[in-house]
## 1
Amino acid sequence: MEKRRVGCFKKPTIAPLISVIIPVYNASVYISEAVQSAVHLTDVGEVLLIEDGSKDNSLAVCKQLVEIHHKVKLFIHPDNKNLGASESRNLGIKNATYNLIAFLDADDVYCKNRFTLAIKKIKSQIDIDGVYCAVGYLDEPNGKVFTLRKKLHPKMLFHYLIRGTYGHFHTNGILLKKTIFEKAGYFNTDLTLHQDSELWLRLAFCGNLVGGELTHPMALIRRHAGNRIWIGQSTESKLKSYYATLNWIRNKNAGIINTFLLLRKISKLESKKENRLFLTTMLKNLTRRIFP
C-alpha cells in the first residue's frame, strides 16, 4: 500500500500585483504606520515613498523604512525640492514596477482587507481599468465615509461625478491599471488642490472604473491640523480645478448635458465669488462656451 507524504505540498504563493505610492511631506510622525499598513498586504509588491522636500525629519524616517522593509523604495525630487502631491504621485507612477497602482497618503492607513474585493473585480473582466472603494476616518466609527453610494455603470461615472449626486471616492480608495494613465494623463501639476478629483474625472471619461466595496471602509483617513487637503481650499481652488476639466473636454465628446453641468458648477462658484446673480453668470459662461 502506497504511503502518502503529509505536508510536502506547499500552498502556492500569490505573485504581488500592486505598487503603492505614498507622497511624503512633513509626515515623520505618521509615515511608519502608513507603510506598515501596506507592506504586509500580500498583493502589494512595493511601496514607493516620494519625499517631497519635508521640513521635519521625514527623509530620515523614510531612509530607515527602506532599511527595514525590502518592499519599500525611496524617491526624492532633484535638490530635495518641494514640488507638491501631483509631481510626487506622477514620479511614483512612472517608476512603478507592477501593473496595478494604488495611492496612500502618508498620514493615513490601509485596512487589512484593502485589496481583497478590488483584486477580484479587476481580474474578473479584462476591460476594467480600475476599482474604487469606500474610505472612512480613523478612530471615528460614525464619521463620514467617502464613497459612491450607488454602483454605477462605468459609462455613467463621469456624468455622476460631475453632478455629485451619489458622492465621490477618495484617493486612498482607488486601484488602477497603470495603462489608464497613458489614455487619461497624469495628475495635473498646475493644481495644488483638487488634483485628485480632476484626474478621476479624466479617468472616468477615458476608462472603465467600477465600484468595489462601497459600504465598509477599505482605508482610513487621519484628521489632524497639518492635513494638506484641508489647508487652502477655497472658491478659487475649486474654480481652477473645474476650469481644468472644462478645458480638457473642450475638444472631446463630453455631451451637452455634462458640459452644462460643469458650467453650472463654475457659474455658482463665480457668482458667489463676484457677488453676482447666478443666472447672469451662467448666461455669460454659456455665451462664452457657444461663441468662444
Note: Residues 97 and 188 are 22 Å apart (CA to CA).
## 2
Amino acid sequence: MNIEFSAPRRLPALVLVGLLCFGRTAAGGDSAAERLYVSDESGGNVVVVDPAAGKVVATIAVGRRPRGIAVSADASRLYVALSGSPNGGPNVDESKLPPPDRRFDGIGVVDLQSHKLINTFPSNADPETFAISHDGKTLYTSNEDTGMLSAIDLGSGTIRASVTVGSEPEGVAVSQDDRIVYTACETSNQVYAIDTRTMKVVATIATTARPRSVLLSTRSHSGYVTDEFGGSITVFSTEDYKVLKTIALGDPKLVRPMGIVASADGRLVYVTTGRAGTLLEIDPAAGAILRTFDAVGKRPWGVALSRDGRKAYTANGPGGDISVVDIASGHVDNRITVGGSPWGIVSAAAAATATAHVQ
C-alpha cells in the first residue's frame, strides 16, 4: 500500500505539538506575526506568546489538564485536549489519587480572534493528544485511560466512531491521504495503524519501551516514534508496517525522547529529551544525531518550529517556561515564563491576519 505523508505545513500532534505555516496575507503583504499557543496542564489554560517580543500576550481559560494542542488550517480555531483524570506525573502514587471526573473530558474549541473557549466537544474518556485530518473534517484523539482512539466530526462536534487499541495510547498521526491513523500505546510498546474508513486496526508495530509521539515522514514511506524508556526512535515502514531501524539516542536512564517535529524539508527531525534537558537534531535517514543542544530547559516535552524554520520552541513543564532556540547556533536565545506546567506548544500566524488570508 502506498500512503502519502503529512505535508510540511502541518505536523502530527504528539506529544505532541505542530507547525503551521502562513506566508502571506490576502493582499499579498508581509508575513503575519507569529504566535505560540502553549497548553498549561496544571493551570487549565492556553497561554498565547509573542515570541518576537518574548512575552505572554493572553491567557485563555479552557478547562482541566489541557495537553494535546493544534490550530486549524485557517488559523481561526485552536483545539486542545482536556481531561478529568487526575495528573499522576513522575513519582506519584496513583493509588492515592482521586477518581476521575468525566464531566471535564473533551476537546476544547477556542476562537483565536476573541481568545475565548467557545465549545467543548465530547471525546470519550481522558483525551491526551490528537491529530486533525488533512481535509479538516475529523479529529482523531487518543483516550489514555480507556485504551481507545476516537474520531470526532469537527463539523457536528460529535464522536463518529471509536476503536480499542493498546494500553495508554498517546501520540497520534494521520497519513496525508487521510486513510490511516496511527497511535502509539505507551505500556503496550506498540503503534497501532487504523483504517479511518472502517475504524479497524490493520496492523501493529513493535517499538522499544514506552512509545510517546508519532511523526510521519515527508520524504519517504516511513514514520518515526519516540521511545521514552528505550532512549530511542523506532523507524517503521508505512507500506508494510515493518520496523526499518531503531536509532539509539543515549542512555535510557538519562535520555527520555518525548516530542518530535520535522524541518520544513523533512530531512531532519528535532526531539526533546525530558529529564536530560536537551534538544536533539537527528538525520533519520542516516540514523544519526547531528547535534545536541544542551541546557534547553527543565524536562522539555512539547516542541515546535518557527514558521521560517530558524527557531525551535520547547515547552518545559516543571520549569514553567518555554525556550526559544536558535537552530543555526544551537543557542537558547530566550526563556519565556508562562507559568504552570507547559505541556504542548504550537506555532501559527496571528489570528487576525490568518483569518484575512482565507477570506
Note: The CA atoms of residues 142 and 170 lie 6 Å apart.
## 3
Amino acid sequence: MDANQILQIITDFLGEYITPYLISDYQGDPFVLFDLFHLAALGGITLAILLIIISRNKFYRKNKENFRDTVAAILIINEISWHTWAYFYDEWTIQKMLPLHICSILVWLSALMLIKKSYKLYEFVYFLGIGGALQALLTPDAGIYGFPHFRFFQTFISHGFIIIAAIYMTVVEKMRPTWKSLLRVFVITNIYLAVVFGINTLIGSNYLYLNHKPPTASLLDLLPDWPVYLLYMEALGIATCLLLYLPFFTKDTWSKLRDESALKRAGGTRLDDFR
C-alpha cells in the first residue's frame, strides 16, 4: 500500500465519518430540547459535579493544581476550536463571534480564575457563570446542530465546564461569595450591559440579547416584548444571584445562632459557679 492509497483511505474516512458532523450546513437531526441526547449531556455534567463534591476532601496540593490546569485547558481549547470552526466555515462575524456574551467571556475568566486562583474572578464566575451557563444548558442556542455534531459537544463542554470550575473552586478550594460580592457583581455587570448595548447598536449585533430576543427557544419567550423584557432579565438575574447565595446565607445564619446559643449556655454556666 503506497502513500496515495493511505491518503485516499484517510480522506474517505474523514469524508464519511467526520466531515458530516463538522460542516455548518448540517444534514442530520437538529437539536431537540430535552430529548435523550440533551438529557444525557445534562446528566453527564451533573454526575461530574457530584463526583467533585463527593471527593472534595481527597484533593491534595498537586492534585488540585493538575485539576485546575486541566479544566482551564479544556475551556480554552474548546473555545478556540469553536472560533476556528466558525472561521473555517465562514460563520465568524463580529456580529456573532466576539466574546461579549456572558458565557463567552466567562470561559476566559473561568480559565484565568483556575490558573491564578483568583478570588476576584471567582465572584463573577460563581454568580454569572453558574446562573448564565445553567440557562444555556437548559435551553441551549444549538439550532440545527443536534447530536453528534461538533457544535453539540462544544456547547455543552463550554457551559458545563464553566459550572464545574465554579463548583470546584467553592467546594474544593473553599472559596465563597459574600454580600459585597453580590454588590460588586451587580454594579460591574450593569456597567458591562450598558457598554454591550452600545456595541450592539453600533455594529448591528445582539450580544446578551439586549436588542431583541434570540431566534431559538429560551426563557425570554415567556417575557414581554423589548424593551420591557430587559427589566425582567434584570430581576431574574438578581433573583438567580440571591438564590445562589442562599446556601451561604443559611450557613452564616445557622452559625450565628449556634454561636449565640453557645455563649448563652456558657454565660449561664459561669453564673451558676457563683451561686
Note: The helical segments are 3-18, 36-54, 61-88, 102-116, 119-138, 150-171, 179-203, 228-273.
